[in-house]
């Protein structure tokens, strides 16, 4: 991540990064946000866990909650 910020800061480059990763730079004025007149972007959500071992009940609850949220958004 530091490499990406350094490259962006050091030249005439453009990048697409999550806002949380450049929040400090945006607030300080080091970087500027470019307004894009387009539909909101989406990106896939990948939920992963290790292959071996039992799933904790909390993991099953989280997966069920995520599925519920996705179903609500799709409808």
From the structure above, extract its key features.
mainly alpha, 3 helices, 75 residues
Q: How would you describe the overall organization of this protein?
A:
- This protein is elongated.
- The mean pLDDT is 81.
- Helices cover 49% and strands 0% of the residues.
- 0% of the residues are buried.
- The longest helix is centred in the C-terminal third of the chain and has 18 residues, at 57-74.
- The chain has helices at residues 2-10, 19-28, 57-74.
- The protein is mainly α and 75 residues long.
- It has one domain (2-74).
- The chain has 3 helices and no strands.
Cα(first) to Cα(last) distance is 36 Å
Q: Average pLDDT, to the nearest integer? A: 81
Determine Rg (CA atoms, Å).
Answer: 18 Å
* Strand content range: under 5%
> What is the element string, with H for helices and E for strands?
HHH
Characterize the largest beta sheet: strand count, sense, and whether it forms a barrel.
none
- The number of distinct β-strands equals 0
Helix content: 40-55%
Shape: elongated
Tally of contiguous helical segments = 3
Residue ranges: pLDDT <50 for 5 or more in a row?
none
Pfam families: LysR_substrate (PF03466)
Domain LysR substrate-binding: 9-69
Protein name: LysR substrate binding domain-containing protein
């Amino acid at each position: 991540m530091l490499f990406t910020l350094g490259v962006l800061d050091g030249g005439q480059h453009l990048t697409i990064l999550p806002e949380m990763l450049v929040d400090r730079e945006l607030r300080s004025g080091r970087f500027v946000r470019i307004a894009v007149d387009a539909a909101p972007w989406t990106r896939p959500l990948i939920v992963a866990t290790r292959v071996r071992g039992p799933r904790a009940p909390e993991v099953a609850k989280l997966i069920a909650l995520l599925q519920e949220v996705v179903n609500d958004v799709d409808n």
